[in-house]
Amino acid sequence: MARGVAVKSSAKKKGVAFVIDCSKPVDDEIMEIATLEKFLQERIKVGGKPGALGDSVSITKNKGKITVTADPTSPNDRNVYELRYFNIEDDAAGDE
């Protein structure tokens, strides 16, 4: 019998991309796209810390659109719980 050969997939998991279309307000001079980009950079939280985007989140602007791209994190980062128990000896049982 022949053994199966494991094949590694070279495709990465894609992240999540959000596109904010600001072309109408920018054309009407209601807002500036640079101020919205700065606001997003200061307010987006990564790891519970605002403004610390690192390599996992990128913000780009192109004409009247802002794209926020987030890379997927490992599933072990979220909701990690540790189970601990303490062995408490009964002092009264030790006296008998």
Please summarize what this structure is.
The protein has 96 residues and is α+β, with helices and mostly antiparallel strands. It has 3 helices and 5 strands.
Describe the structure.
- With about 100 residues, the chain is α+β, with helices and mostly antiparallel strands.
- The protein has one domain (about 15-95): 2-Layer Sandwich (Gyrase A, domain 2).
- The chain has helices at about 25, 35-45, 90-95; strands at about 15-20, 45, 50, 55-60, 65-70.
- The strands form two sheets. Strands 1-5-4 form a three-stranded antiparallel sheet, with helices on one face. A two-stranded antiparallel ribbon has the order 2-3.
- It is elongated and about 80 Å long.
- The N and C termini lie far apart (about 65 Å).
Q: What portion of the residues fall into strands of 2 or more residues?
A: 15-25%
* Strand adjacency order, main sheet: 1-5-4
Outline the biggest β-sheet: 3 strands, antiparallel
Gross geometry = elongated
Query: What is the class in the CATH system?
Result: Alpha Beta
Structural category: alpha+beta
Give the total of beta strands.
5
Task: Compute the number of structural domains.
Answer: 1
Topology pattern, helix = H, strand = E: EHHEEEEH
The CATH architecture designation is 2-Layer Sandwich
Number of helices: 3
Keywords: Ribonucleoprotein, Ribosomal protein
Family: Belongs to the eukaryotic ribosomal protein eL22 family.
Pfam family, one: Ribosomal_L22e
